[in-house]
Amino acid sequence: MSASGKRTAKVRGMKCPICGRAAAADCRPFCGVRCQETDLSRWLTGSYAIPDDGPPDGYE
């Protein structure tokens, strides 16, 4: 069940990138709200970063 108390359908063949359980249709690609919030927290705290191959700041 999801946080709202409703049953959630599982997405066939897709696994949650955080915990590895089956993904829920209403939280895709995550299994639930907890993993969604964990992922968002990781992005906001800088745990995830997209690499930049450009020149360093101040370089001409």
Would you identify the regions where 5 or more consecutive residues have pLDDT less than 50? none
Mean pLDDT level: 84
Describe the biggest sheet?
2 strands, antiparallel
Helix content: 10-25%
Distance between the termini: 55 Å
Strand order of the largest sheet: 1-2
Principal-axes shape call: elongated
Describe this structure in words.
This protein is an alpha+beta fold. It has a domain at 10-45. Helices cover 22% and strands 15% of the residues. The chain has one helix at residues 33-45; strands spanning 10-15, 22-24. Strands 1-2 form a two-stranded antiparallel sheet. Strand 1 and strand 2 (22-24) form a beta hairpin. It is elongated. It starts with 9 loop residues before the first strand and ends in a 15-residue tail after the last helix. The mean pLDDT is 84.
Question: What's this, in brief?
Answer:
This protein is an alpha+beta fold and 60 residues long.
Task: Based on the model shown, name its key terms.
60 residues, alpha+beta, two-stranded antiparallel sheet, 1 helix, 2 strands, 22% helix, elongated
